[in-house]
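Input (Arginine biosynthesis bifunctional protein ArgJ):
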Amino acid sequence: MYTVIEGGVTVAAGFQTASTAAGIKYKNRKDMAMIYSEKPCKAAGTFTTNIVKAAPVKWDQKIVKESEYAQAVVINAGIANACTGAEGMGYCAETAQAASAALNVPESAVLVASTGVIGMQLPMDKLKAGIAAMAPELSGTIESGTEAAKSIMTTDTRKKEVAVQFEIGGKTVTVGGMCKGSGMIHPNMCTMLSFVTTDIAISKELLQEALSADVKDTYNMISVDGDTSTNDTCLVLANGMAGNAEITEKNADYEEFCKALNYVNETLAKKMAGDGEGCTALFEVKVIGAESKAQAVTLSKSIITSSLTKAAIFGHDANWGRILCAMGYSGAQFDPEKVDLFFESAAGSMQIIKDGVALDYSEEQATKILSEPEVTAIADVKMGNASATAWGCDLTFDYVKINADYRS
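Output:
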Protein backbone atom coordinates (compact mmCIF):
# COMPACT_ATOMS: atom_id res chain seq x y z
CA MET A 1 0.00 0.00 0.00
CA TYR A 2 1.30 3.46 -0.87
CA THR A 3 1.59 6.52 1.36
CA VAL A 4 1.04 10.05 0.03
CA ILE A 5 4.03 12.29 0.75
CA GLU A 6 4.98 15.90 0.14
CA GLY A 7 6.53 16.92 -3.17
CA GLY A 8 6.55 15.97 -6.83
CA VAL A 9 9.13 14.95 -9.42
CA THR A 10 12.20 15.50 -7.23
CA VAL A 11 11.18 13.14 -4.40
CA ALA A 12 12.24 9.92 -6.12
CA ALA A 13 15.96 9.13 -5.65
CA GLY A 14 18.29 10.67 -8.21
CA PHE A 15 15.93 13.17 -9.79
CA GLN A 16 16.65 16.90 -9.93
CA THR A 17 14.94 19.93 -11.45
CA ALA A 18 15.68 23.53 -12.30
CA SER A 19 13.57 26.36 -13.67
CA THR A 20 14.17 29.82 -15.11
CA ALA A 21 12.58 32.90 -16.64
CA ALA A 22 13.77 32.66 -20.23
CA GLY A 23 11.35 35.26 -21.59
CA ILE A 24 10.07 32.95 -24.34
CA LYS A 25 6.61 34.58 -24.26
CA TYR A 26 5.82 35.59 -20.69
CA LYS A 27 7.40 38.46 -18.80
CA ASN A 28 8.36 38.55 -15.14
CA ARG A 29 7.74 34.85 -14.51
CA LYS A 30 9.49 31.52 -14.95
CA ASP A 31 8.65 29.75 -18.20
CA MET A 32 11.16 26.91 -18.54
CA ALA A 33 11.91 23.79 -16.53
CA MET A 34 14.34 20.91 -16.69
CA ILE A 35 14.14 17.42 -15.19
CA TYR A 36 17.38 15.44 -14.86
CA SER A 37 18.19 11.99 -13.53
CA GLU A 38 21.58 11.08 -12.12
CA LYS A 39 21.20 7.66 -13.72
CA PRO A 40 19.83 6.67 -17.15
CA CYS A 41 16.10 5.97 -17.12
CA LYS A 42 13.71 3.59 -18.75
CA ALA A 43 11.20 5.85 -20.50
CA ALA A 44 7.54 5.38 -21.37
CA GLY A 45 5.13 7.82 -22.95
CA THR A 46 1.61 8.41 -24.21
CA PHE A 47 0.71 11.22 -26.57
CA THR A 48 -2.08 13.16 -28.23
CA THR A 49 -4.47 11.36 -30.58
CA ASN A 50 -4.85 14.55 -32.63
CA ILE A 51 -3.62 14.02 -36.21
CA VAL A 52 -2.00 17.45 -35.93
CA LYS A 53 0.92 16.66 -33.65
CA ALA A 54 3.39 19.24 -32.36
CA ALA A 55 7.09 18.75 -33.09
CA PRO A 56 7.94 17.85 -29.46
CA VAL A 57 5.35 15.05 -29.56
CA LYS A 58 6.96 13.56 -32.67
CA TRP A 59 10.42 13.95 -31.13
CA ASP A 60 9.44 12.26 -27.88
CA GLN A 61 7.61 9.43 -29.63
CA LYS A 62 10.84 8.63 -31.45
CA ILE A 63 13.00 8.88 -28.32
CA VAL A 64 10.67 6.70 -26.24
CA LYS A 65 10.45 4.08 -28.98
CA GLU A 66 14.02 3.98 -30.24
CA SER A 67 16.44 5.29 -27.59
CA GLU A 68 18.09 2.92 -25.15
CA TYR A 69 17.40 5.33 -22.31
CA ALA A 70 16.40 8.89 -21.41
CA GLN A 71 17.99 11.12 -18.81
CA ALA A 72 16.63 14.65 -19.18
CA VAL A 73 13.49 16.58 -20.12
CA VAL A 74 13.45 20.22 -21.23
CA ILE A 75 10.08 21.97 -21.00
CA ASN A 76 8.96 25.42 -22.10
CA ALA A 77 5.68 27.27 -21.60
CA GLY A 78 4.18 30.01 -23.76
CA ILE A 79 4.86 28.66 -27.26
CA ALA A 80 3.68 25.18 -28.28
CA ASN A 81 6.07 24.57 -31.20
CA ALA A 82 3.07 23.14 -33.07
CA CYS A 83 2.31 23.68 -36.77
CA THR A 84 5.85 25.02 -37.18
CA GLY A 85 6.95 22.82 -40.10
CA ALA A 86 10.48 21.52 -40.52
CA GLU A 87 11.75 24.36 -38.35
CA GLY A 88 9.84 22.91 -35.40
CA MET A 89 11.64 19.57 -35.59
CA GLY A 90 14.88 21.49 -35.94
CA TYR A 91 14.10 23.31 -32.69
CA CYS A 92 13.74 19.97 -30.92
CA ALA A 93 17.11 18.85 -32.22
CA GLU A 94 18.72 22.12 -31.19
CA THR A 95 17.18 21.83 -27.74
CA ALA A 96 18.54 18.30 -27.36
CA GLN A 97 21.97 19.43 -28.53
CA ALA A 98 22.05 22.28 -26.02
CA ALA A 99 20.91 20.04 -23.18
CA SER A 100 23.39 17.37 -24.20
CA ALA A 101 26.24 19.84 -23.97
CA ALA A 102 25.06 21.33 -20.68
CA LEU A 103 24.34 18.00 -18.95
CA ASN A 104 26.87 15.69 -20.61
CA VAL A 105 24.21 13.24 -21.76
CA PRO A 106 23.55 11.94 -25.29
CA GLU A 107 21.18 13.96 -27.48
CA SER A 108 19.14 10.77 -27.86
CA ALA A 109 18.54 10.82 -24.08
CA VAL A 110 16.89 14.27 -24.10
CA LEU A 111 13.11 14.57 -24.22
CA VAL A 112 11.43 17.91 -24.97
CA ALA A 113 7.98 19.33 -24.26
CA SER A 114 6.28 22.60 -25.16
CA THR A 115 2.95 24.18 -24.34
CA GLY A 116 1.33 27.46 -25.31
CA VAL A 117 0.28 29.23 -28.50
CA ILE A 118 0.10 27.16 -31.69
CA GLY A 119 1.88 28.41 -34.82
CA MET A 120 4.50 30.69 -33.23
CA GLN A 121 8.17 29.93 -33.79
CA LEU A 122 10.37 29.33 -30.76
CA PRO A 123 13.04 31.97 -30.00
CA MET A 124 15.89 29.48 -29.81
CA ASP A 125 18.41 32.00 -28.51
CA LYS A 126 16.24 32.46 -25.39
CA LEU A 127 15.56 28.74 -25.06
CA LYS A 128 19.25 27.83 -25.30
CA ALA A 129 20.12 30.54 -22.79
CA GLY A 130 17.48 29.05 -20.49
CA ILE A 131 19.08 25.62 -20.71
CA ALA A 132 22.51 27.06 -19.94
CA ALA A 133 21.06 28.92 -16.95
CA MET A 134 19.23 25.89 -15.55
CA ALA A 135 21.95 23.23 -15.77
CA PRO A 136 24.08 24.61 -12.88
CA GLU A 137 20.98 25.15 -10.75
CA LEU A 138 19.71 21.55 -10.77
CA SER A 139 18.54 20.48 -7.32
CA GLY A 140 16.74 17.53 -5.79
CA THR A 141 14.89 19.55 -3.15
CA ILE A 142 11.11 19.56 -2.85
CA GLU A 143 11.20 23.33 -3.36
CA SER A 144 13.03 22.94 -6.67
CA GLY A 145 10.38 20.50 -7.86
CA THR A 146 7.60 22.87 -6.87
CA GLU A 147 9.22 25.74 -8.75
CA ALA A 148 9.49 23.53 -11.82
CA ALA A 149 5.78 22.71 -11.56
CA LYS A 150 4.97 26.43 -11.41
CA SER A 151 7.19 27.30 -14.36
CA ILE A 152 5.37 25.06 -16.87
CA MET A 153 1.94 26.65 -16.28
CA THR A 154 0.13 28.59 -19.01
CA THR A 155 -3.44 29.54 -18.06
CA ASP A 156 -3.22 27.25 -15.02
CA THR A 157 -4.00 29.09 -11.79
CA ARG A 158 -1.99 26.80 -9.53
CA LYS A 159 0.87 24.30 -9.62
CA LYS A 160 0.02 20.62 -9.80
CA GLU A 161 2.20 17.94 -8.19
CA VAL A 162 1.89 14.78 -6.12
CA ALA A 163 4.09 11.97 -4.75
CA VAL A 164 3.69 8.59 -3.06
CA GLN A 165 5.92 5.92 -1.52
CA PHE A 166 5.52 2.18 -1.04
CA GLU A 167 7.62 -0.85 -0.14
CA ILE A 168 8.56 -3.76 -2.39
CA GLY A 169 11.18 -6.36 -1.59
CA GLY A 170 12.25 -4.40 1.49
CA LYS A 171 13.03 -1.34 -0.60
CA THR A 172 11.27 2.03 -0.48
CA VAL A 173 10.01 3.05 -3.91
CA THR A 174 8.85 6.57 -4.75
CA VAL A 175 6.62 7.80 -7.56
CA GLY A 176 6.23 11.56 -8.06
CA GLY A 177 4.64 13.69 -10.71
CA MET A 178 3.86 17.18 -11.93
CA CYS A 179 1.64 18.40 -14.74
CA LYS A 180 0.10 21.43 -16.36
CA GLY A 181 -3.27 21.69 -18.02
CA SER A 182 -6.20 24.07 -17.88
CA GLY A 183 -7.68 24.55 -21.35
CA MET A 184 -7.93 22.60 -24.62
CA ILE A 185 -8.56 19.59 -22.40
CA HIS A 186 -10.52 16.63 -23.74
CA PRO A 187 -10.51 12.83 -23.29
CA ASN A 188 -7.89 10.91 -25.27
CA MET A 189 -5.21 13.18 -23.86
CA CYS A 190 -5.36 16.93 -23.62
CA THR A 191 -3.32 20.17 -23.56
CA MET A 192 -1.56 18.63 -20.77
CA LEU A 193 2.04 17.94 -20.07
CA SER A 194 2.52 15.33 -17.37
CA PHE A 195 5.86 14.11 -16.04
CA VAL A 196 6.16 11.18 -13.65
CA THR A 197 9.45 10.15 -12.08
CA THR A 198 10.16 6.98 -10.13
CA ASP A 199 13.20 5.23 -8.74
CA ILE A 200 11.72 1.77 -9.28
CA ALA A 201 13.64 -0.82 -11.29
CA ILE A 202 11.31 -2.10 -13.99
CA SER A 203 11.61 -3.26 -17.59
CA LYS A 204 10.88 -0.73 -20.31
CA GLU A 205 8.16 -2.96 -21.72
CA LEU A 206 6.24 -3.23 -18.44
CA LEU A 207 6.70 0.48 -17.72
CA GLN A 208 5.07 1.33 -21.04
CA GLU A 209 2.33 -1.25 -20.53
CA ALA A 210 1.51 0.12 -17.07
CA LEU A 211 1.29 3.70 -18.36
CA SER A 212 -0.72 2.86 -21.48
CA ALA A 213 -3.26 0.95 -19.40
CA ASP A 214 -3.53 3.61 -16.72
CA VAL A 215 -4.16 6.64 -18.95
CA LYS A 216 -7.45 5.06 -20.01
CA ASP A 217 -8.88 5.59 -16.51
CA THR A 218 -7.10 8.84 -15.68
CA TYR A 219 -6.03 11.42 -18.27
CA ASN A 220 -8.40 10.03 -20.89
CA MET A 221 -11.34 10.56 -18.53
CA ILE A 222 -11.07 14.33 -18.13
CA SER A 223 -12.51 17.16 -20.19
CA VAL A 224 -12.64 20.93 -19.85
CA ASP A 225 -13.80 22.13 -23.23
CA GLY A 226 -13.95 19.24 -25.71
CA ASP A 227 -10.83 20.31 -27.65
CA THR A 228 -8.11 17.70 -28.07
CA SER A 229 -4.69 19.37 -28.19
CA THR A 230 -1.70 19.04 -30.49
CA ASN A 231 0.83 18.75 -27.66
CA ASP A 232 -0.43 16.21 -25.13
CA THR A 233 2.43 14.34 -23.57
CA CYS A 234 2.73 12.08 -20.55
CA LEU A 235 6.21 10.79 -19.81
CA VAL A 236 7.32 8.35 -17.11
CA LEU A 237 11.00 8.01 -16.24
CA ALA A 238 12.27 5.13 -14.07
CA ASN A 239 15.93 5.17 -13.00
CA GLY A 240 16.04 2.04 -10.82
CA MET A 241 17.77 3.79 -7.92
CA ALA A 242 15.38 2.33 -5.31
CA GLY A 243 17.45 -0.83 -5.56
CA ASN A 244 14.57 -3.29 -5.84
CA ALA A 245 14.90 -6.43 -7.92
CA GLU A 246 13.96 -5.36 -11.45
CA ILE A 247 10.33 -6.06 -12.26
CA THR A 248 10.23 -8.11 -15.45
CA GLU A 249 6.89 -9.85 -15.07
CA LYS A 250 3.38 -9.00 -13.89
CA ASN A 251 3.74 -10.08 -10.28
CA ALA A 252 2.67 -8.59 -6.93
CA ASP A 253 5.42 -5.94 -7.14
CA TYR A 254 4.12 -4.85 -10.55
CA GLU A 255 0.60 -4.54 -9.16
CA GLU A 256 1.83 -2.38 -6.29
CA PHE A 257 3.58 -0.10 -8.75
CA CYS A 258 0.46 0.12 -10.92
CA LYS A 259 -1.63 1.17 -7.91
CA ALA A 260 0.85 3.92 -7.03
CA LEU A 261 1.06 5.07 -10.65
CA ASN A 262 -2.73 5.18 -10.85
CA TYR A 263 -2.97 7.36 -7.75
CA VAL A 264 -0.40 9.81 -9.12
CA ASN A 265 -1.99 9.99 -12.56
CA GLU A 266 -5.57 10.22 -11.25
CA THR A 267 -4.60 12.95 -8.80
CA LEU A 268 -2.88 14.98 -11.51
CA ALA A 269 -5.82 14.44 -13.88
CA LYS A 270 -8.29 15.69 -11.29
CA LYS A 271 -6.09 18.69 -10.52
CA MET A 272 -6.25 19.64 -14.21
CA ALA A 273 -10.00 19.15 -14.48
CA GLY A 274 -10.55 21.18 -11.31
CA ASP A 275 -8.38 23.99 -12.65
CA GLY A 276 -10.14 24.28 -16.00
CA GLU A 277 -9.97 27.74 -17.51
CA GLY A 278 -12.32 30.05 -15.64
CA CYS A 279 -13.94 27.23 -13.69
CA THR A 280 -15.28 27.39 -10.16
CA ALA A 281 -15.86 23.68 -9.51
CA LEU A 282 -14.49 20.22 -10.19
CA PHE A 283 -17.36 18.18 -11.63
CA GLU A 284 -17.09 14.41 -11.18
CA VAL A 285 -19.44 11.99 -12.93
CA LYS A 286 -19.76 8.36 -11.87
CA VAL A 287 -21.78 5.95 -13.99
CA ILE A 288 -22.59 2.76 -12.09
CA GLY A 289 -24.67 -0.32 -12.78
CA ALA A 290 -23.52 -0.45 -16.40
CA GLU A 291 -23.45 -3.64 -18.43
CA SER A 292 -19.87 -3.00 -19.57
CA LYS A 293 -16.95 -0.69 -18.83
CA ALA A 294 -17.20 0.69 -22.38
CA GLN A 295 -20.82 1.67 -21.84
CA ALA A 296 -20.00 3.38 -18.53
CA VAL A 297 -17.07 5.26 -20.11
CA THR A 298 -19.22 6.49 -23.01
CA LEU A 299 -22.00 7.70 -20.73
CA SER A 300 -19.75 9.43 -18.21
CA LYS A 301 -17.77 11.20 -20.93
CA SER A 302 -20.94 12.40 -22.62
CA ILE A 303 -22.19 13.97 -19.40
CA ILE A 304 -18.86 15.57 -18.53
CA THR A 305 -18.55 17.21 -21.97
CA SER A 306 -22.11 18.54 -22.17
CA SER A 307 -21.94 22.34 -22.33
CA LEU A 308 -25.48 22.65 -20.98
CA THR A 309 -24.70 20.40 -18.03
CA LYS A 310 -21.47 22.28 -17.33
CA ALA A 311 -23.39 25.58 -17.41
CA ALA A 312 -25.96 24.18 -14.99
CA ILE A 313 -23.19 23.22 -12.56
CA PHE A 314 -21.86 26.79 -12.78
CA GLY A 315 -25.34 28.06 -11.93
CA HIS A 316 -25.72 25.54 -9.09
CA ASP A 317 -28.87 24.37 -10.86
CA ALA A 318 -30.00 20.74 -10.44
CA ASN A 319 -31.12 20.61 -14.07
CA TRP A 320 -31.09 16.83 -14.25
CA GLY A 321 -32.78 16.79 -17.67
CA ARG A 322 -29.54 17.96 -19.24
CA ILE A 323 -27.69 14.99 -17.77
CA LEU A 324 -30.27 12.49 -18.97
CA CYS A 325 -30.24 14.18 -22.38
CA ALA A 326 -26.43 13.91 -22.62
CA MET A 327 -26.66 10.23 -21.77
CA GLY A 328 -29.30 9.78 -24.46
CA TYR A 329 -27.20 11.14 -27.34
CA SER A 330 -24.00 9.40 -26.21
CA GLY A 331 -24.58 6.40 -28.47
CA ALA A 332 -24.72 3.99 -25.54
CA GLN A 333 -27.88 1.93 -25.20
CA PHE A 334 -29.79 2.04 -21.90
CA ASP A 335 -33.33 2.35 -20.61
CA PRO A 336 -33.92 5.97 -19.48
CA GLU A 337 -36.91 4.83 -17.43
CA LYS A 338 -34.60 2.85 -15.14
CA VAL A 339 -32.02 5.56 -14.42
CA ASP A 340 -31.46 6.83 -10.88
CA LEU A 341 -29.50 10.07 -10.45
CA PHE A 342 -27.82 11.47 -7.35
CA PHE A 343 -25.87 14.66 -6.56
CA GLU A 344 -23.36 14.81 -3.73
CA SER A 345 -20.68 17.09 -2.32
CA ALA A 346 -19.26 18.12 1.04
CA ALA A 347 -22.64 19.73 1.70
CA GLY A 348 -24.50 16.42 1.53
CA SER A 349 -26.09 14.00 -0.92
CA MET A 350 -29.47 13.78 -2.59
CA GLN A 351 -31.35 11.57 -5.04
CA ILE A 352 -32.81 13.70 -7.83
CA ILE A 353 -34.54 11.16 -10.08
CA LYS A 354 -35.68 7.57 -9.64
CA ASP A 355 -36.46 5.36 -12.63
CA GLY A 356 -36.12 8.34 -14.94
CA VAL A 357 -38.64 10.50 -13.08
CA ALA A 358 -37.98 13.47 -10.79
CA LEU A 359 -38.45 13.01 -7.06
CA ASP A 360 -39.94 15.63 -4.77
CA TYR A 361 -36.58 17.05 -3.72
CA SER A 362 -35.65 20.39 -2.18
CA GLU A 363 -34.29 22.80 -4.80
CA GLU A 364 -32.72 24.80 -1.97
CA GLN A 365 -30.81 21.76 -0.69
CA ALA A 366 -29.82 20.78 -4.23
CA THR A 367 -28.40 24.26 -4.83
CA LYS A 368 -26.47 24.02 -1.57
CA ILE A 369 -24.94 20.70 -2.65
CA LEU A 370 -24.04 22.08 -6.09
CA SER A 371 -22.43 25.21 -4.62
CA GLU A 372 -19.37 23.35 -3.33
CA PRO A 373 -15.99 23.48 -5.14
CA GLU A 374 -16.19 19.72 -5.80
CA VAL A 375 -19.48 18.24 -7.01
CA THR A 376 -20.32 14.65 -7.99
CA ALA A 377 -23.19 13.28 -10.08
CA ILE A 378 -23.89 9.55 -9.86
CA ALA A 379 -25.98 7.89 -12.55
CA ASP A 380 -27.14 4.31 -11.97
CA VAL A 381 -28.36 2.65 -15.17
CA LYS A 382 -29.19 -0.66 -13.46
CA MET A 383 -27.86 -2.97 -16.16
CA GLY A 384 -24.88 -4.69 -14.54
CA ASN A 385 -21.84 -4.21 -12.32
CA ALA A 386 -19.53 -2.10 -14.49
CA SER A 387 -18.66 1.51 -13.70
CA ALA A 388 -16.54 4.45 -14.83
CA THR A 389 -15.66 7.90 -13.52
CA ALA A 390 -14.97 11.04 -15.54
CA TRP A 391 -13.87 14.49 -14.40
CA GLY A 392 -14.54 17.94 -15.77
CA CYS A 393 -15.55 21.39 -14.58
CA ASP A 394 -18.25 23.98 -14.89
CA LEU A 395 -18.51 26.33 -17.89
CA THR A 396 -18.19 29.97 -16.88
CA PHE A 397 -18.11 33.47 -18.37
CA ASP A 398 -14.38 33.58 -17.71
CA TYR A 399 -13.70 30.60 -19.98
CA VAL A 400 -14.83 32.69 -22.96
CA LYS A 401 -12.89 35.73 -21.78
CA ILE A 402 -9.66 33.75 -21.40
CA ASN A 403 -9.90 32.11 -24.81
CA ALA A 404 -11.17 35.14 -26.71
CA ASP A 405 -7.75 36.82 -26.42
CA TYR A 406 -5.41 33.91 -25.57
CA ARG A 407 -2.75 34.94 -28.11
CA SER A 408 -2.42 38.49 -26.81
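The CA atoms of residues 191 and 229 lie 5 Å apart.
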